[in-house]
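Q: I'm writing up a methods section and want to include an example of the input and output format. Could you take the sequence below and give the corresponding predicted structure tokens, formatted cleanly so I can copy it straight into the document?
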Amino acid sequence: MRSDLRLWFLPRIQDIFFALFFIAVLALGTQMLNLDGDLPRHLLMGRYMLQSRTVPTTELFIYPYLGQPYVPHEWLTDVMFYLIYSIWNWAGLVLVAALLLATTFTLLYKGLSQRLGFHLPVLILVAWGAIATSINWAIRPHLVSMCLLAVWLLRTDDLQRGKKIPVWQFPAVMLLWSNLHGEFIAGILVLLAYAFGWTLETVFDRSRADMRIGKNIWLALLLSFLASLINPSGAGPWLSILGFVNNEYLMSRMVEANAPNFQNPEMRVLLSLLAASIVLLAVKKSRLSLGQGFLLAGFSAMSLIAIRNIHLYGIVAPFVMAKSLDEITHFPLVQRLERSLEIMEGRLKGSIWIAIVLVALGSLVILSDRAQSLYQLKEPVFPVQAVNWLENHPQQGYMFNDLNWGGYLGLHLWPDQLTFVDSMADTTGHVTMKYETIITLQVGWQELFEQYNITWAIVPVNWQLAKELKAQGWKTAYQDQTAVILIRE
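A: Here is the clean output for your methods example:
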């Protein structure tokens, strides 16, 4: 009896895998909170929706676009994030990020190892992909998309293998996904790759085609696309996202929209994964269906086009590549290890162990004063002290601000103050062009100040704009090592 009880507490590989990722994200929590300026804007939007009980479809927070159409393609995640933040502060968001990332890669490992019948090669490959995605680990709604993509891949694979699963599951998940984050398009691309792959295989060898599988894949694709239109803006997310990624000006101004530079050490993991996929495709191409080939090629291309897509590739690549690793298990050493693991895994339960880890670490993060002080938005990424001063010394008139500080300023000062720009509101580039004209002191920057009747500014203390405004007689109302607040006399 005691031995049977012990089996519930001894961890399986998947439990250890989950715990390691969970702990890794907790360790990186402060960095993930302070990676960019998007998170405060998400919280501001979530707070507004909870207070107003409406989902806005016009811009509310930056005054150059005030009242213009806005597509809230992440509205549901914004609400969830703000609810968590309002209860557990920043530490709660770190905890949710840890849960999402650990779940994503554990589901991928568990699903692949069960399908393929081996553990170690899958474990290494999924961990490899996870490390590649870490460059995009930030506490933003895309973490939700990562988890849903892992689930979507496994269910699509079930469909492609002829497993009897309800097709309605796909539009049901897509309905949720398209209201959580704009990367729901990745799910459509997965089904599209399988649908085209099946169609071409049928054209070239109709005798081997399973019409039921093809019908289900195409039906899932059609229903999922229709479900993606059920959101507060209808086709708005499609038009907004496709317009955004095809906006050459905005893409050229975003670091994460640049192609990866493989001279940088942090990109070497991605490079090695891409190289491994080429080798495996060359040696084991017969192991992959045409749909899987399209899937890997498409997401590989996306990762080479923009850094912002690497987190998607790091999930898709291990999923596809794992299917070509079966011959590795023919090596005697690997066979012995796999047999031992199979016996051990078959006996262990592990459920209680992982529950204990979640409760223990979760309680530590939520209840610990040290964790609460550690997980904060910090300077110099955000103008924390300057905003504290502004809350006690509110300014009148229109402000000019650093783009990456817009969401943070809005979270603390809206609705009394609207910002000039933030890191999310501009999907056309018009305001960003004006912002760039001002901060680089190009011809016409002073006219833009007059056009928008800007009477005060909060900008980084070392900006040339700050020096120029001081030279023109603007008064320094506040200054610290991060920010300076200047007022027109």
